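Two entries, shown back to back:
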Amino acid sequence: METGLSGLWSRYGDGVVALVVAAALLVTGAAQQVPGTARAVLGFGLLAVGGLALAARSRAPVAVLAVTGVCAVGYQAAGLDVPAVAYLFAVYAAVRAGHRTVAVMVSVAVLGLLPLAALVSGPYATGEAFARARGALEIAWLIAAGAAGEALRQAERRADEAERTREETARRRADEERLHIARELHDSLTHQISVVKVQAEVAVHTARRRGEEVSPPLLAILDAAREATRELRATLEALREDDSGPPRGLGQVAELVERARDAGLGTTLTIEGRWHDVPAAVGGTVYRIVQESLTNIVRHADADTATVRIDCRPDSLAVRVDDDGKAAHGTAPVPGLGLLGMRERVNALGGRLSAGPRSGGGFTVRAELSLDGAP
């Protein structure tokens, strides 16, 4: 029930406040003995406009501040001695939105113009004009409105920071738990596969010493065990690197390209834009995407060339890795652990990742990451 009421208030609250303030200002103005002149009609119109403008105070706080300030000075000049209540609401909204300097500047201007408006409205002495202006907009009210807006702004900021901290803590704990599980699984699998590998090697060695023909299934078991051992060793290196190694980012992508070239893969790298300004989390994710993509190309794609392109835009980053391997268009990629890991990293940063065969042959990995709010 509270959620429904708060939702209704967030949607219609400004409008309700605007109507109430406008009605209060008009009633206050009507209670005064004002001749029915054109100037009085203008004054009532400014009362209504000043109050109703508050309906837009959340969407355009600075514009509402200016409108209510002009209206307050205007209806004072028209002879309506009505407090600038709408302007106080506008000051509160502007300060809450973070426009403190603008609120101070506009308030100084309004405080300076109100005595002049009182002088214009009738034959008042200077002292009487200042007294009337002070009654329309007390400095204490003005300070209270600004202080309330600033207090709420600080409270909302602290709440946002607390929420962000909770999310970061939960994400870090989840990452630590996944890393712990991966290590435990790695240690268990490594031991079991090592046993299989050693037993297969002994069987092959014994058969060859006896001059017997080694059966193809036994050789297949030995090759599979060796390949699994290599894969697990590479996985353990990556896990250790993630946990205790120096941070990896866009500055180290060139090293990955050099390693791929050393492995016989003709690889080119293109980086466009201001890559030095990319947040560390995004740079680390791009490094892992390129690392996993090039590793898969070298091991499985049977490719001759690969291209890595990174485009650093003002609000996002795009990375693309292509190869000319044996992947055929229209075949779905096998969702291995490497691809799943890339997708998890990209999703954690609110990005998008796609991977699949290209129409002209080969494979493409594409990712787009937002730079807004990334740590």
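entry 2 starts here
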Amino acid sequence: MRVSDLFIYPLKSARGIALQSTEINAFGLPGDRRAMLINPDGSFITQREMTDLARLDVRQEASGFQLGMNGETLFVPLPDGIKRIDVSIWKSIVNAAVADDHSNQVLSRWFGRELKFVFFDDDANRIASPEWAGDDTPVTFADGYQILVTTTGSLKALNADIEAHGEGSVGMERFRPNIVIDTDEAWPEDRWAAIEIGGIRFDLVKPCARCIMTTQDQQTGSREVANPMPAMGRIRMSADRRVPGPLFGWNVTPRAAGAIAIGDTVNVLDERPDGWAFKVRKRA
């Protein structure tokens, strides 16, 4: 097995960037989900409620972020950290740096609603769930964990069910992974407890429950496209109440620093023999 793709998403829920190689640190892939758009009350915004985020290009540079949408561009300088706000991401509260007023005004005009751009700087702190990831594992603005891993064999199996029901097919971009592993087998990740890439141990700590974002085209934000949710409901519904809903991919916590690249070999270090429990589909 080898790494087939690597991605980061500099601004949470905006377009991703494909990489050939990347460093790995305690936060995961450097530059991943360090920025985010929020409502005036500090609550986070994603494609779930603002589909046009899928149309926002983001490139992080040394001094800030280059954004593009609808033929317009905007450079957002890295916030100096003086102006801050408490932002909420699910159950987490993070004290984040706020961008300059001009940037926030332009972004509010682009999306037709008042919002702010915030940055996870060196003074921001957030810890992943100790119940799943262990103690003191830092995470930025990701939904909950440092890295998301998916496999090509599992996408192939999912698409086989989608196509068998005349529902089209979907690409891996719908699931917004960080690391994609090329596998012949479907769903091997359900058994993996830990893998090694580039000499780094990655613990698969929790399966990823999927939401409406998987139904959206990741370039246009349209939901008038093939929908993987029915297929996941048929073959990937969790039977474990700790993580309810349809599952695709695993949340991963790195246990060392280093570097990985496309083409790197993936070795399984530890397995969970019973895998993960799924509901049995009733036959008509």
